[in-house]
Amino acid sequence: MTLEEKVNMIHASSSFTSGGVPRLGIPEMVTSDGPHGVRLEHGRGWNAQKGVLDSGTYLPTGICLASTWNPALGFAFGSVLGSEANFRGKDVILGPGINIMRSPLNGRNFEYLSEDPYLVSKMVVGYIKGVQAQGISACVKHFAGNNQETNRGSIDVQMSERALMEIYLPGFKAAIQEGGVYTLMGSYNKFRGQWATQNNYLINQILKKEWGFKGAVISDWGAVHSTAQAIWNGTDLEMGTDLDMGPHPNYGKFFLGDTVVTLVKTGKMPVSLVDDKVRRLLYVMYKANMLGGGKRMKGEYNTAAHQATAQKVAEEGIVLLKNEDKILPLKSDVKSIAVIGYNADRKQAMGGGSSQVKAFFEVTPLQGLQNIAGKKVKITYTKGYNIARGAGADADMIKQAVQAASKADVAVIVGGWTHGYDYNVWSDNAYDTEGFDKTDMQMPFGQNELIKAVLAANPRTVVVLMGGGPIDVTQWVSDAKGIIQAWYPGMEGGNALAKIIFGQVNPSGKLPVSFPKKLEDAPAIKLGQYPGDGVTVNYFDDIYVGYRYFDTYKVEPQFAFGYGLSYTTFKYSDLHVQTGDKTATVTFKIKNTGAVAGAEVAQLYVKQEKLNLPRPEKELKGFDKVFLQAGEEKTVTLTLNEDAFKYFNDIKNQWEMDSGVFDFIVGSSSRDIKLTGTGTL
Ligand code: BGC
User: Model-level pTM?
Assistant: First the structure.
């Protein structure tokens, strides 16, 4: 290859492709967002294309996938993406997004998985393997420290080495070493003073040297800022769009463009650095069967099987948060339902920024309830509130909702966050979206007033929350008998939700993120800085992210990490802990003691009794989702290796395991502990 040909490969050739080498039959590499569906077609620029088949499967978003606590569904999810990517002629899917949910306000939490690195690690591997089994490259993102959208393009993230090792990196390490991901995307922010996408420590030192990553590092779109740093620090492909370049952009002007040719030719840069990048890109191309004679799979689009996966993930990911007096599932005495709330009939697929999907169809909660209720149950619908910037409570809409609720047997309010209201105006896409964090945790659009009024009118009210994470429910949580967290549940979400409400599906989702009562209780705000001073954000909250904070500092969350109810009950018994030198095997029994089949996510937390350095109260190190018929009992076996007991000693700058006594804590959530045993290692 000539130098020019090589350099042509290390930068974009259009908004979503990298340059190829026609002379040698090396094609462009076609990338596409995103984490929960193959993005609509933008052609070579950014204009949505007309007359193309680009409305596909819209899967539940990442937070809903993680709520299933079912790694097998991660694989199924990835398989759908890989298959549809093949059909659409894509080579790389720009997902999964796995940044740790540090602040409840992060606009992209809906795309991400969890606050807990172990749960992230378990879910990400299946996702990646699912995508790549279809011969498509996954692209794990955003590496690293992109935990907020506020000032994402400039903020300098400062955190301790221990927080980096214990909290923010394990998901990426698992993606590389266990998932075998072919590509990784660097993030927009700075990390310890240097842009993350061209960061020597993160990319050269940790990712490539320590972890042995063989694939290619793709920049986030427009995240490269300097030729020299990108070349020397391990960025392999510069993506982005320079909108100033007009309709015929000259991608040679990119940092990894013509300048590189000049620098190599004038002896200022060794060609070996360019060769390494090209070799990595070719490696991805071979793996994705773009070169080397490997056969590309044809892929499938909008199949019933893909839609069934979307529905299954929603059914297992939706979380039942409260069920007083067994208000759910609805019984046959319910003859009328007042469905209330804008989100009940709102389509969400096209919101949120780069992860937007043109859905082949999207069943809203209202449609789902109508589908299942059939003719036997009368359903009325009223919006209850308006989605508009700054909109507060609307007295007339509340009045209508109250009237409807008081006339019906049951009211179902569907509210919470949303992706905004005007998809054409980037900044208006303001809740759960790329580019913007939420400004607070309060329910927008006067929903508190609405919910309180409806609860007063009809105590048989179920509140369904949509959105990408915690919302402040303190004004009405003790009065509402039924609360469901539905996230953004994908194209079949309305059907999945309705099946749960009517009891055709027994809920089994568990929260992958703690819900603080108040924003002030969130550790990023209480102990750390968020969103920083505009220049720097210091993660003084350190390793105390999520339940690690709530448990250690003894702060009561609204809903704990790992929490979620079922329509049946489970009994845990017979805990046995068998320890080796550096390993442990934990067994216990779970019995379904209720009348219906269900699934329980049994969680294993570990705590060392005597500590050399401060550590969280306990940490998740194992879990198993156990499916049980009514009356059925199973034995769960969880095996822990050395990693479960290690911590990062940042005085010595190394991972360590101290011998001693460990507690093995088995819970139905991080706060609902069923069994505890000890063992010496
Ligand atoms: C986002 C990425 C996305 C890329 C391409 C960026 O703005 O941060 O997550 O993959 O755009 O759409």
Answer: 0.98
